[in-house]
Amino acid sequence: xxxxxxxDRAVRLPLILEPQPGGGYAxxxxxxxxLHTGGDTLDEVLAxxxxxxxxxxxxxxxxxxxxxxxxxxxxxxxxxxxxxxFAA
Length: 88
Fold this sequence. Notes:
Elements: E1 10-11, E2 16-19, E3 25-28, E4 36-39, H1 42-63, E5 72-73
Antiparallel strand pairs: 1-5, 2-3, 3-4
């Protein structure tokens, strides 16, 4: 397991964006069930994910919990993939 205080490691955070009937998206992560956010646009979602990520890190640190090792990638170990979302 990894600690919340590992700034030298890259994180790959899977997100599930669920379109909402009234518009916008609800966002969760299968690796971090504590992460919940949303937004009306993709740009807003991405900004809110940053805030939610910081809040989750604070909770994990306060509770003394380890972050799931599956979150971390080692850029020095070789190629890895990332995905991003943006409005086209």
